[in-house]
Amino acid sequence: MKEWKKSDFYFDLPEALIAQDPLEDRSASRLLVLNKRTGEREHHFFHEITDYLEPGDCLVLNNTKVIPARLTGIRETTGAAVELLLLKRREKDVWETLVKPGKKARPGTVICFGDGLLKGEILEVVEEGNRLVRFTYQGIFEEVLDRLGEMPLPPYITHKLEDKNRYQTVYAKYEGSAAAPTAGLHFTGELLKKIEEKGVSIAYVTLHVGLGTFRPVKAENILEHHMHSESYHVPEEAAEKINRAKCEGKRVICVGTTSCRTVESAVDENGMLRESSGDTDIFIYPGYHFKVMDALITNFHLPESTLVMLVSALAGRENVLDAYKEAVEEKYRFFSFGDVMLIQ
């Protein structure tokens, strides 16, 4: 297998194309359709996605819900400001977190949030310098978090979001993500209804998105990059819908790289899915053989990111970089609140 370098996935992106706000109408985003075999491209709008879906196809959506995971507090002893980001629940009140500044966040340190409504004690330092924190509070943790926390928007979005629901999909159901599965932000309830009326089945899986997905690749040899694990669940109903599409020779179309990584992690040696839960650190890059996914709806990703590597595995690096170059020329909007691609 070819050895890939990080720089093989570089493209030039003007900062002005990074979308700072969502469009008023979720489905009004532009849609670039890429033929993964020929590299041919078409330009449309997302609400026209139904034209590219066939009866019997199965659309796979990640119904995770983003929690208001960014907390701002003070150290109990000194009053110094601290920012804490919830990454993953380890047990009931113990979370793996990212703490800034981290240097003085030693085990035993207590951080107060909301005048003591919530307190967090640092238990230990784990991999990548993350901290395990035990929280104490009165009442229900989720309600306290909803009151004190903010949506953990990516660092390239430079201002606060007016309506935090715009960083949730309309079908978000199970809380646990530190970032949104952003390809799903383009769907409206009305559009999903139209898709089902066309005879397309919709399968909901859950993968709680951690920040590991967005961590920059630092090693020039991409095989040295370490992916963080994320927890997923494939319900029985979703497995049955996906298997039926495969058995009938229809397509499985994943919405977002998180849905893709879920089904590709949960598949058995016969190419079938069953109800399952687990953790995945799957890293998909060119040379990977997809066992479930046939097509992908995805946003435009950061240069040299693991997500650009994943879409390159599906459509070929040259096809993807050519499409990105054209998207830049056509002034498509990039990243979380940006426009969208269909790779088929």
What does this structure look like?
It is a single chain. This protein is an alpha/beta fold. Helix content is 18%, strand content 28%. It has a nine-stranded mixed sheet. A six-stranded antiparallel β-barrel has the order 5-6-7-10-9-8. Strands 4-11 form a two-stranded parallel ribbon. Helix 5 crosses helix 6.
Counting DSSP E segments of at least 2 residues, the number of strands comes to 17
Cα-atom radius of gyration: 20 Å
Order of helices and strands: EEEEEEEEEEHEHEEHEHEEHHE
Give the biggest sheet: 9 strands, mixed
Widest β-sheet, arrangement of strands: 2-1-17-16-14-3-12-13-15
Helix content: 10-25%
Shape: globular
> Count the helices. How many?
6
Q: How does the helix and strand content classify structurally?
A: alpha/beta
Low-confidence stretches: none
The rounded distance between the terminal residues' Cα atoms is 24 Å
* Average residue-wise pLDDT: 95
Write the layout of secondary structure elements.
Layout: E1 30-34, E2 41-45, E3 58-62, E4 64-66, E5 70-75, E6 81-91, E7 94-100, E8 110-113, E9 118-125, E10 131-137, H1 141-148, E11 174-177, H2 189-197, E12 201-207, E13 230-234, H3 236-247, E14 252-255, H4 257-266, E15 276-280, E16 295-299, H5 306-315, H6 317-329, E17 340-343
Parallel strand pairs: 1-17, 3-12, 3-14, 4-11, 14-16
Antiparallel strand pairs: 1-2, 5-6, 5-8, 6-7, 7-10, 8-9, 9-10, 12-13, 13-15, 16-17
Helix pairs in contact: 5-6
